[in-house]
Design brief:
Number of helices of chain A: 11
Number of helices of chain B: 7
Distance between the termini of chain B: 67 Å
Order of helices and strands of chain A: HHHHHHHHHHH
Largest sheet of chain B: none
Number of strands of chain A: 0
Helix content of chain A: 55-70%
Largest sheet of chain A: none
Shape of chain A: globular
Order of helices and strands of chain B: HHHHHHH
Strand content of chain A: under 5%
Structural class of chain A: mainly alpha
Strand content of chain B: under 5%
Helix content of chain B: over 70%
Largest interface: A-B, 24 and 27 residues
Number of strands of chain B: 0
Structural class of chain B: mainly alpha
Oligomer: heterodimer
Radius of gyration of chain A: 19 Å
Chain lengths: 315, 219
């Protein structure tokens, strides 16, 4: 473990924490522009977080400690997830702690706790949201695993840093399996982040909301933590997509100069990714909940085909 | 350079396979035609790259022919056909897309295993993609089996021809020019005949559902 490694690790955590709400603001702004609305300010998510942190947190009378603890657990899961995804450098002291499979597990842990907390209070919306969330989760997780497998077949390792290092610092090679995995990953991340074909992040309409139904009972600092965790999740997924499919510009170990360059590159890629996300969301319509298994089944199938293509072509 | 080109061919092959899967799960007829056009374009690109790498000018000719036929002419004919049949915005009720997808995966595994020994024998630069081409053919068969409307079945037939063409290109650098020209004309004539056929079906049954044809028995 080098000093540089520790620095890049800390830098990554700080950047994830500070930039995740900005990414949400950026996406919202572009979405508003594309839909011909006047856009909220870029810093609106920070203002919302600030407002929520200063507000009193109201907890239901019957709520168990699980309800109070869940926001902290979810938040720390998302923070750890964004810490182990190599976005700036592949020299991360935390990365041996969790590989690609454990990353999926981290997301699953957060999902389980938020769903339990939503059911804890016993309101109808909470348990409806929890059920839907679990439905999406159990379909999306195998697909995400297959995507990560098809990426990890290339360096023959499930360690995220090894995968990214191999993909970023090798001679230019086209992997057809990654094309399949990329499409599947886009579909999965839209579903996992409660984005438009599956769930509308801005809706509060009772019968269609999923993510909003889960956090309906929360207020004050708990809600702030959950909102922050949601933006961290979007950030983590964007970074995972970038580092798997567009990894150029990630710094190697022992390269301080590359680390300086890695940050602007990451910002540039995230900005483009945000615009693309807004475009995707504007261009598509929300799907009926019964079509979701079909959608995620397609994503799973694409990821499996990616693995198969890799085995057939053997590159 | 040839290493890079081989990877490019593999990528186009993957795109063709992906589009074949997209066709299976697509409900809208208009989107199906767009997907077919894209598949044709990927086929043209793959053929051109193979021609460039192997310095075989006749592959350029066949790429050009494919472009004219499968990216311009046939989609144009299909667009006119659905316009006149008034099925442009039709949405077909597909049953159980996930199951179809799973069958599709099984077909792909089968095709890959089948093609593996053959592609080992092939000295062609794109020999590895034979499995993908075979998978495309089988997937198009699957599409023709599960669809009940006439236009998607025709598109499935055309997409199968795409797969066959790609198989020929990847395994043996394309068929002889005469055969290729013959097949191109066959497809063109085939789609004209099928178009007439569709009008006849609609005139007879007021619908393009193939299931009506089962009632044609004399009793």
């Amino acid at each position: 473990m080098s000093i540089l490694g520790v620095i890049s690790q800390l830098l990554e955590i700080v950047i994830a924490l500070s930039l995740a709400p900005l990414l949400i603001g950026w996406v919202n702004q572009w979405r508003a522009w594309l839909q011909n609305r006047s856009a909220p300010g870029l810093l609106q998510p920070y203002r919302v977080l600030h407002k929520l942190f200063n507000k009193e947190s109201v907890v239901a009378e019957r709520a168990s400690p699980l309800f109070r603890g869940a926001p902290y657990i979810v938040f720390s899961c998302m923070l750890l997830a964004s810490a182990i995804i190599p976005t700036l450098s592949t020299d991360l002291p935390l990365s041996p702690a969790a590989d690609a499979i454990a990353l999926v597990g981290l997301f699953a842990l957060a999902r389980v706790f938020i769903s339990l907390a939503a059911m804890d209070v016993g309101t109808a919306f909470g348990s409806m949201g929890a059920r839907r969330e679990m439905l999406i989760g159990f379909l999306a997780e195998p697909a995400l695993l297959m995507v990560l497998f098809s990426a990890s077949l290339i360096p023959k390792s499930t360690s995220l840093t090894t995968i990214v290092e191999t993909l970023a610092h090798r001679d230019l090679a086209i992997y057809p399996s990654l094309a399949f995995a990329g499409v599947a990953f886009t579909m999965i991340s839209l579903a996992e982040n409660a984005r438009i074909p599956i769930d509308n992040p801005t809706t509060h309409l009772e019968l269609t909301m999923i993510h909003e139904a889960l956090i309906l009972e929360y207020s004050g600092r708990h809600l702030a933590l959950l909102e922050w965790a949601a933006s961290l999740k979007l950030f983590a997924y964007s970074c995972l997509g970038i580092s798997l499919f567009f990894p150029w510009g990630v710094a190697e170990a022992h390269a301080p100069l590359a680390l300086m360059l890695a940050l602007p590159t990451l910002l540039f890629k995230l900005a483009i990714g945000g615009v693309l996300l807004a475009l995707l969301e504007t261009a598509s319509a929300k799907m009926r909940i019964f079509r979701v298994p079909e959608y995620l089944g397609t994503a799973f199938m694409l990821a499996v085909i990616g693995v198969l293509v890799h085995i057939l072509l053997g590159v | 350079m040839s290493h890079f080109a081989a990877q490019l061919i593999n990528l186009f092959a993957a795109v063709i396979l992906m589009l074949a899967f997209a066709m299976i799960s697509q409900r809208r007829i208009l989107s199906l035609i767009h997907l077919y056009t894209m598949q044709g374009a990927a086929l043209v690109a793959a053929t051109a790259v193979v021609g460039y790498v192997t310095h075989q000018p006749h592959l350029y000719v066949s790429a050009g022919l494919t472009f004219l036929l499968k990216v311009v002419l046939i989609p144009l004919l299909l667009h006119r056909m659905i316009e006149r049949l008034d099925v442009r915005w039709d949405v077909e009720a597909l049953i159980n897309v996930p199951t179809t997808m799973l069958i599709g995966i099984v077909l792909v595994i089968f095709a890959f295993n089948l093609a593996l020994p053959i592609s080992r024998l092939s000295a062609s630069i794109a020999g590895g993609t034979l499995g993908i081409a075979l998978a495309c053919v089988l997937l198009s068969f699957l599409m023709m089996i599960i669809r009940s409307k006439a236009v998607p079945q025709v598109i499935g037939f055309l997409s199968m021809e795409n797969g066959l063409f790609f198989a020929a290109t990847s395994a043996t650098y394309g068929m002889p020019m005469v055969v290729e020209l013959g097949i191109a004309l066959d497809v063109l004539v085939g789609i004209l005949i099928l178009g007439v056929f569709m009008f006849q079906i609609r005139e007879r049954f007021d619908s393009l559902d193939i299931r009506h044809l089962e009632k044609l028995k004399e009793s």
